[in-house]
Inverse folding.
Protein backbone atom coordinates (compact mmCIF):
# COMPACT_ATOMS: atom_id res chain seq x y z
CA UNK A 1 0.00 0.00 0.00
CA UNK A 2 2.81 2.39 0.89
CA UNK A 3 4.57 1.61 -2.39
CA UNK A 4 1.37 2.31 -4.32
CA UNK A 5 0.81 5.56 -2.44
CA UNK A 6 4.37 6.65 -3.15
CA UNK A 7 3.98 5.80 -6.82
CA UNK A 8 0.74 7.74 -7.04
CA UNK A 9 2.33 10.71 -5.31
CA UNK A 10 5.29 10.64 -7.69
CA UNK A 11 2.93 10.46 -10.65
CA UNK A 12 0.93 13.40 -9.31
CA UNK A 13 4.09 15.49 -8.88
CA UNK A 14 5.32 14.67 -12.38
CA UNK A 15 1.94 15.38 -13.93
CA UNK A 16 1.63 18.62 -12.00
CA UNK A 17 5.05 19.78 -13.15
CA UNK A 18 4.24 18.84 -16.72
CA UNK A 19 0.97 20.75 -16.54
CA UNK A 20 2.75 23.80 -15.19
CA UNK A 21 5.40 23.71 -17.89
CA UNK A 22 2.70 23.34 -20.54
CA UNK A 23 0.93 26.51 -19.42
CA UNK A 24 1.34 29.66 -21.43
CA UNK A 25 2.26 32.92 -19.75
CA UNK A 26 -1.24 34.27 -20.30
CA UNK A 27 -2.73 31.19 -18.62
CA UNK A 28 -0.55 31.65 -15.55
CA UNK A 29 -1.42 35.35 -15.44
CA UNK A 30 -5.10 34.50 -15.80
CA UNK A 31 -4.89 32.06 -12.88
CA UNK A 32 -3.44 34.79 -10.67
CA UNK A 33 -5.11 37.80 -12.28
CA UNK A 34 -7.02 38.85 -9.17
CA UNK A 35 -3.96 39.04 -6.92
CA UNK A 36 -1.87 40.61 -9.69
CA UNK A 37 -4.52 43.28 -10.20
CA UNK A 38 -4.67 43.94 -6.47
CA UNK A 39 -0.88 43.72 -6.11
CA UNK A 40 -0.77 43.32 -2.34
CA UNK A 41 2.52 42.27 -0.75
CA UNK A 42 0.62 39.90 1.55
CA UNK A 43 -0.89 37.84 -1.27
CA UNK A 44 1.32 38.28 -4.32
CA UNK A 45 4.20 35.85 -3.67
CA UNK A 46 2.46 32.71 -5.07
CA UNK A 47 1.82 34.56 -8.34
CA UNK A 48 5.45 35.67 -8.60
CA UNK A 49 6.67 32.17 -7.75
CA UNK A 50 4.45 30.62 -10.44
CA UNK A 51 5.71 33.05 -13.06
CA UNK A 52 9.38 32.46 -12.26
CA UNK A 53 8.95 28.68 -11.96
CA UNK A 54 7.39 28.53 -15.43
CA UNK A 55 10.73 29.57 -17.00
CA UNK A 56 8.79 30.96 -19.95
CA UNK A 57 10.75 33.33 -22.20
CA UNK A 58 8.59 36.43 -21.68
CA UNK A 59 8.35 36.27 -17.88
CA UNK A 60 11.16 38.79 -17.49
CA UNK A 61 9.38 41.21 -19.84
CA UNK A 62 6.14 40.80 -17.91
CA UNK A 63 7.83 41.38 -14.54
CA UNK A 64 9.62 44.49 -15.80
CA UNK A 65 6.36 45.94 -17.13
CA UNK A 66 4.54 45.08 -13.92
CA UNK A 67 7.17 46.79 -11.79
CA UNK A 68 7.00 49.84 -14.06
CA UNK A 69 3.21 50.05 -13.58
CA UNK A 70 2.76 49.44 -17.30
CA UNK A 71 0.24 46.60 -16.96
CA UNK A 72 -3.46 47.22 -17.50
CA UNK A 73 -6.45 45.00 -16.70
CA UNK A 74 -9.29 44.69 -19.17
CA UNK A 75 -12.35 45.09 -16.94
CA UNK A 76 -14.55 43.04 -19.25
CA UNK A 77 -12.31 40.04 -19.91
CA UNK A 78 -9.85 40.25 -16.98
CA UNK A 79 -7.05 39.92 -19.52
CA UNK A 80 -3.85 41.76 -18.64
CA UNK A 81 -1.77 43.58 -21.22
CA UNK A 82 1.24 45.88 -21.20
CA UNK A 83 1.06 49.39 -22.58
CA UNK A 84 4.06 51.06 -24.20
CA UNK A 85 3.95 54.35 -26.08
CA UNK A 86 0.15 54.19 -26.12
CA UNK A 87 0.23 50.77 -27.81
CA UNK A 88 -1.15 47.54 -26.35
CA UNK A 89 1.45 44.78 -26.05
CA UNK A 90 0.65 41.08 -25.71
CA UNK A 91 2.53 39.61 -22.74
CA UNK A 92 2.88 36.16 -24.32
CA UNK A 93 4.45 37.30 -27.56
CA UNK A 94 5.33 40.99 -27.04
CA UNK A 95 3.41 41.64 -30.25
CA UNK A 96 1.64 44.94 -30.89
CA UNK A 97 -2.12 44.64 -30.37
CA UNK A 98 -2.95 48.12 -31.59
CA UNK A 99 -3.56 51.57 -30.11
CA UNK A 100 -4.49 51.79 -26.44
CA UNK A 101 -7.58 53.53 -25.12
CA UNK A 102 -8.04 53.80 -21.35
CA UNK A 103 -11.79 53.21 -21.46
CA UNK A 104 -12.57 49.77 -20.07
CA UNK A 105 -9.11 49.28 -18.57
CA UNK A 106 -7.71 49.62 -15.07
CA UNK A 107 -4.04 50.34 -14.47
CA UNK A 108 -2.26 47.89 -12.18
CA UNK A 109 -0.23 49.87 -9.66
CA UNK A 110 1.98 47.69 -7.45
CA UNK A 111 3.07 49.43 -4.26
CA UNK A 112 6.70 49.70 -3.20
CA UNK A 113 6.54 46.43 -1.26
CA UNK A 114 5.29 44.49 -4.28
CA UNK A 115 7.82 46.22 -6.55
CA UNK A 116 10.58 45.07 -4.20
CA UNK A 117 9.34 41.48 -4.50
CA UNK A 118 9.22 41.79 -8.28
CA UNK A 119 12.76 43.18 -8.27
CA UNK A 120 13.84 40.20 -6.22
CA UNK A 121 12.30 37.83 -8.76
CA UNK A 122 14.07 39.65 -11.58
CA UNK A 123 17.45 39.01 -9.99
CA UNK A 124 17.69 35.54 -11.53
CA UNK A 125 17.27 37.07 -14.99
CA UNK A 126 19.48 40.10 -14.44
CA UNK A 127 22.56 38.66 -12.71
CA UNK A 128 23.95 37.47 -16.03
CA UNK A 129 22.38 40.09 -18.29
CA UNK A 130 24.60 41.43 -21.10
CA UNK A 131 24.16 45.00 -19.85
CA UNK A 132 26.42 45.82 -16.90
CA UNK A 133 23.81 48.25 -15.54
CA UNK A 134 21.33 45.37 -15.26
CA UNK A 135 23.85 43.23 -13.39
CA UNK A 136 24.53 46.11 -11.00
CA UNK A 137 20.79 46.53 -10.46
CA UNK A 138 20.52 42.83 -9.60
CA UNK A 139 23.21 43.16 -6.95
CA UNK A 140 21.49 46.22 -5.50
CA UNK A 141 18.24 44.26 -5.32
CA UNK A 142 19.97 41.41 -3.49
CA UNK A 143 21.31 43.87 -0.94
CA UNK A 144 17.82 45.28 -0.37
CA UNK A 145 16.11 41.90 -0.19
CA UNK A 146 18.60 39.49 1.35
CA UNK A 147 17.46 35.92 0.88
CA UNK A 148 19.38 32.62 1.05
CA UNK A 149 17.89 31.68 -2.33
CA UNK A 150 20.17 34.25 -3.95
CA UNK A 151 23.33 32.51 -2.76
CA UNK A 152 23.49 29.74 -5.40
CA UNK A 153 22.48 32.22 -8.10
CA UNK A 154 25.36 34.49 -7.13
CA UNK A 155 27.82 31.59 -7.01
CA UNK A 156 26.77 30.45 -10.48
CA UNK A 157 27.02 33.95 -11.91
CA UNK A 158 30.57 34.42 -10.63
CA UNK A 159 31.94 32.08 -13.27
CA UNK A 160 30.20 34.06 -16.00
CA UNK A 161 31.08 37.56 -14.84
CA UNK A 162 33.56 39.43 -17.05
CA UNK A 163 33.80 42.76 -15.23
CA UNK A 164 36.53 42.67 -12.53
CA UNK A 165 34.74 45.15 -10.27
CA UNK A 166 31.52 43.16 -10.41
CA UNK A 167 33.42 39.93 -9.79
CA UNK A 168 34.72 41.44 -6.56
CA UNK A 169 31.27 42.76 -5.62
CA UNK A 170 29.58 39.44 -6.31
CA UNK A 171 32.23 37.58 -4.35
CA UNK A 172 31.76 39.90 -1.40
CA UNK A 173 28.00 39.36 -1.51
CA UNK A 174 28.55 35.60 -1.62
CA UNK A 175 30.64 35.85 1.54
CA UNK A 176 28.11 38.12 3.28
CA UNK A 177 25.19 35.82 2.46
CA UNK A 178 27.23 32.77 3.48
CA UNK A 179 28.06 34.47 6.75
CA UNK A 180 24.36 34.99 7.39
CA UNK A 181 22.83 31.88 5.86
CA UNK A 182 25.67 29.34 5.62
CA UNK A 183 24.48 25.86 6.53
CA UNK A 184 27.56 24.92 8.54
CA UNK A 185 29.93 26.58 10.97
CA UNK A 186 32.83 25.78 8.65
CA UNK A 187 31.35 27.66 5.70
CA UNK A 188 30.52 30.65 7.89
CA UNK A 189 34.03 30.67 9.35
CA UNK A 190 35.50 30.48 5.85
CA UNK A 191 33.40 33.49 4.85
CA UNK A 192 34.64 35.42 7.88
CA UNK A 193 38.23 34.55 7.00
CA UNK A 194 37.71 35.73 3.42
CA UNK A 195 36.35 39.17 4.31
CA UNK A 196 37.59 39.65 7.86
CA UNK A 197 40.27 42.15 6.89
CA UNK A 198 37.98 44.27 4.72
CA UNK A 199 37.36 47.86 5.78
CA UNK A 200 34.13 48.05 3.79
CA UNK A 201 31.32 49.50 5.93
CA UNK A 202 28.85 46.81 4.86
CA UNK A 203 31.32 44.07 5.75
CA UNK A 204 32.22 45.58 9.12
CA UNK A 205 28.52 45.84 9.99
CA UNK A 206 28.00 42.16 9.16
CA UNK A 207 30.95 40.86 11.17
Amino acid sequence: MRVLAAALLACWVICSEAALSAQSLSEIISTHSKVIAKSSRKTIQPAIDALVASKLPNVEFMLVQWRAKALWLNKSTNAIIAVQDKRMIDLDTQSDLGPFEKAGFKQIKPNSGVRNLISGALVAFQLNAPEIAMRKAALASIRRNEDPAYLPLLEQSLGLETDPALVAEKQQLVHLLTLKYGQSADTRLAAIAAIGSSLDVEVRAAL
Remarks:
- The chain has eleven helices and five strands.
